[in-house]
Amino acid sequence: MRLTGIVTLLFLGITSLPALADDLELKSEVAVVLDARTGAEVYAKDADEVHAIASTTKIFVAMAVRRKGLVLDDWTEITQADVKAARGGARTRLDRGQTFQNEDLLRAMLMASDNRAPSALGRAVGLDRDGLIDEMNAVAKDLGLKQTKFTDTSGLRGNVSTAREMALALKAAIDDPVLAKIMTTSWVRITSKSGYAKLDYGNTNSALQAGKYTVTGGKTGYTRKAGYCFIVGTEIDGTTYVMAFLGAEGKSTRFADFNRVASWISEGSAGAKVKVAKARKDKPKKSEKLRVSAKGKVKKK
Prior knowledge:
Helix 2 packs parallel to helix 5 (about 115-125). This protein has helices at about 5-10, 60-65, 80-85, 100-110, 115-125, 130-140, 165-175, 175-185, 205-210, 255-265, and strands at about 15, 30-35, 40-45, 50, 75, 100, 160, 185-190, 200, 215-225, 225-235, 240-250, 275, 290, 300. The radius of gyration is 20 Å and the shape is globular. It is about 30% helix and about 25% strand. It is α+β, with helices and mostly antiparallel strands and about 300 residues long. A hairpin with a 5-residue loop joins strand 14 and strand 15 (about 300). A five-stranded antiparallel sheet has the order 3-2-12-11-10, sandwiched between helices. It has one domain: Beta-lactamase (3-Layer(aba) Sandwich).
C-alpha cells in the first residue's frame, strides 16, 4: 500500500487494514485493489504498467453509448459491419440480419462479451467505428485516465490501459445503475424483433456466478496478447472495492486471484492485521509505526 493510501485511511478514521501485502501472492501479471469510495490503494502489483485489456474494453463502449443517449428500448439490426468488426474473436450468437433491442445488445456485450454488439450499439447512437473509438477515448480522458487508449471497439486488436485505470473506469461504470444491473445479472434470455432468435446468455463473471461474495459489477476479457483479464467490483464486510487483474495465464487464475484478495481482506492472516490509531485522537505508539516500501507494501517496524 502506498503512503497516500494510508494517509487517506487515517484521515477517514479507519482503524484496521487488510492483512500484510507480503501475505498475498497473486498470479495475474498486474493487479490492483482500490477502496471504491475513497480511491485509496489497498493492494498493487505493477498497477501502473501499461497492459493490453482485451474485452474489458467493452465497459467503455457501454459508457460511451450511454452518454450519447442510447435509447434502451429501440431496435438495432446486426449488419455486415458488425460481422467485420468481430472477426478474429470468439463465436458470436448475434446473426446478421436479426434485430435486437439496444438493452439486450448491452446485455450480450457486457455479460457474454459478444463482439458484434459494440459496433451495433455505436450505430444506434449515430457513431461509425471511428466515431465510437473517438467517444471511448473521450470517456477515458474525461475520467482522467491518461494511460488508457483505444484503437478498436471490441478489444480484439489494440487497446491498452493499466490495472489502476481499469479499476477506476469500472467504478464509473458501476455508478450507472443500468450498467450495474446488467453486469450483476447472472442469466438472461434475449429475443430478436422477429421472434426467430431466442438467445440465452450466462454471465462470464465466475465470481458473480459463485455467489460467495457480493459482486457489484465486472467484466472479463481474453486475447493472446492480453492474457486472461478480469475487472470486478465487490462489497466485503461493508466496504466496497474495485479490482483489476490483467495478464493471467489461465482462464480460472483471474477468478482465483479475486478469491485470494477477497479472503485476504475479510479474514487476513493470523496475527497479520495492521491496526492504525484513529486520526485526530490517538497517536500511534512507536511500535505501531508503519514503514512503506516503494513497492506498496505495508509492514510494522
